[in-house]
Amino acid sequence: MTTGEKIAYERGKLGLTQQQFANELGVTRQAVSRWESDISFPETDKLIKMSELFGCSIDYLIKYNSNGGAQSDSPRGDGREDDRTDGKRGVFNPMTWHFEYKSEKQLCGMPLVHVNIGFGRKAHGFFSFGLISSGVFSFGLLSAGVVSVGILSLGAITFGCIALGLLAFAAIALGIVAFGAVAIGVIALGGVAIGCFGLGGCAIGAFACGGYANGSIVAVGDYAVGNIALGKTTATGNTLSATLENFEAQKEEAWRLLDEIPAFWQGFVRWCKSFADACMRR
Fold first, then answer.
1. Residues contacting 206, CB < 8 A, separation 6+
2. What angle do CA 27, 70, 92 make, to 5 degrees?
3. Would you give the distance in Å from CA 234 to the centre of its chain?
4. Binning pLDDT at 50, 70 and 90, where does residue 85 land?
5. What distances in angstroms separate CA 146 from CA 107, 137, 141, 142, 200, one per listed residue?
6. What is the pLDDT of residue 100?
7. Which helix (H) or strand (E) holds 158?
8. How far is the C-alpha of 172 from the C-alpha of 184, rounded, in Å?
9. Quick one: which of 56, 68, 43, 72 has its CA closest to 10?
10. Are 118 and 131 in contact (CB under 8 A)?
11. Alpha carbon of residue 135 to chain centroid
12. Any idea what DSSP says for residue 263?
């Protein structure tokens, strides 16, 4: 617990509002608020008054161990350990709506588990949970990690409303492989998909497959626009256009043109062929 959290905790035990507590110390309510938010630190004479009011030692209010929690000085000043100051235990401060737990065990130089939930608080651990979190496995509103889950998520594998990662799943997803309502990536799958290979309701890319497909190399869909365009109802292609009505007659030529695309792209070409066969079935 920080000094501000201890002040808020002890004040709450006495049932005092910030204004009532400020009156006891002869300061403003704003000063108390700054102390409890750890924005500023109380002067020595105020700490002395607080220790008398709370019935604790000054050391209890100000000392911390290496784990970020307070040392074992009791609020009674008798040296006996007080569980509330153990940084390894989960501590909930009802006055600031802050909860923190940090495991003693460390991995890769960080706590194995760090939970830090509260306004403006950050969690950093191998497994981290918080409004703002970072770690190998990270969960939070704003999250960054190898595996990251959050409203705004950044990492190798990401899940969120807005996700940026090598593999991204989100309402708005950006990544090497992206899945989402709006997906942007080398391989993009979504309602609106933009990528080297795009698959979706509206797909745009070098290879595009979807309801509306606009592909600079190949476009396959209900409405297709591209160099090689295969559209169920409409197809506009520079080199070849095939619709449902003439697909069977044009299929051999279409497949020949597709096979001439460099081998590097043949994985995408196979996807386009499979999608075209499925799209053109009556």
1. 196, 197, 215, 216, 217, 218, 265, 268
2. 75
3. 41
4. very low
5. 15, 6, 16, 14, 27
6. 80
7. strand 142-243
8. 8
9. 56
10. yes
11. 11
12. G
